[in-house]
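Bug report

Summary: structure tokens for YCII-related domain-containing protein differ between web form and batch submission.
Environment: batch mode, default settings.
Steps: 1) Submit the sequence below via batch. 2) Compare with the web form result.

Sequence submitted:
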Amino acid sequence: MLYAMLAYHVEAEVTSWTPQEDAALMTELLAVHERLNARKLLGPAARLGGTAEARTLRGPGAGMVIDGPFAETKEQLLGLYVLNCADEDEAIAIARDLRRANPSAVYEIRPIRLYLPGEALPETSNEPGQG
């Protein structure tokens, strides 16, 4: 059975880390990733972009795009997609396509950095501490 594991942290703390502190943490995490990968338990892992980069599509019809990862307290994260889009506009267009199929859903759009065992880490943002 597949499980999604969502990592929560205090964003201000994470973005305050120096590149060296972040790299040290990633070294530790990648060691865990390697152990999990050796057991064939690890799928893709991703660090979400900062909440300031998040967009949420909600409302009737084509919906309204608002800044931020704002969920209503009655909503829970029930799934996710990983999409390879040229830019945020393309990601929003895809979210609108998904809403046409599932109009009661709310879609948060946020850039991610994907970690694949043995692969280089791609950059998704030019902001320090983001991506």
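Above is the batch result. After comparison, the two runs are identical; trailing whitespace caused the diff. The chain is about 30% helix and 15% strand. Residues 2-111 form a domain with the Alpha-Beta Plaits fold (CATH 3.30.70.1060).
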